[in-house]
């Protein structure tokens, strides 16, 4: 029985469970940027991303092997390639490069545009047409995020922002294809096989990057690496794809509007950054948009 069948048969119970899974994914993702900043204390950007992928692939591969999960059918390889290139490779690399020049808070707010990007990709890919209310609330949330970003950067778009906008596009495509695959198989199979597919490349990049980038191991640096590998990349994507399969890509994506605000909280508690004065107003506006999108019929 597929995740879609399960949601259909159990009705509100499956939808509630899917929402909780998607929220768990958002919580895991909200710690990614602070953990990445910690990881950059010990590793260079290329080393951090490649080692992160290697560790996550070893975790996923261990589960796949232990449970004897069959290899994906050939007809799904194209979708897996999109997930791997967008979620496993593109997004981590581009955001890590961006965090070399941007603060965690600034990067988190820019990535707040991800829900709208994901909803747009999903609508184009699946042919589904969410309601006008849904789109109105989604655009409003994106406008709040964009206004907040421009206000923080003085109205200019930096190189770090370009990295982040590129990360939005590749991640939205990966989320959309991953959400579709998660309707046909368990979500952890989706991210597990995508991680394993990238293992050879990440091993090569790790070896090359470690020969050029210095390594200075610290407790925070190692903790950051472990979290982005096990917490964000494996666990976070596992529960996220399961949630998307149960409640739909569009609705799940709008829950991510809360992610930049959660990351702002972590940036204060874990990194000592000072929140922007406009953050509370942005938080209220974005949460209202989330409430509207969750009530609107897709």
Automatic annotation (TrEMBL):
Record bears the keyword Transmembrane: yes
Record keywords, A-Z: Membrane, Transmembrane, Transmembrane helix
TM spans (from-to): 12-33, 45-67, 79-99, 105-124, 133-150, 190-212, 224-241, 278-296
Subcellular location: Membrane
Stretches assigned to the EamA domain: 18-146, 159-292
Topology within the bilayer: Multi-pass membrane protein
Pfam families per the UniProt record, alphabetical: EamA
Coiled coil (residue ranges): none
Family classification: Belongs to the EamA transporter family.
Protein name: DMT family transporter
Species the sequence originates in: Streptomyces niveus (Streptomyces spheroides)
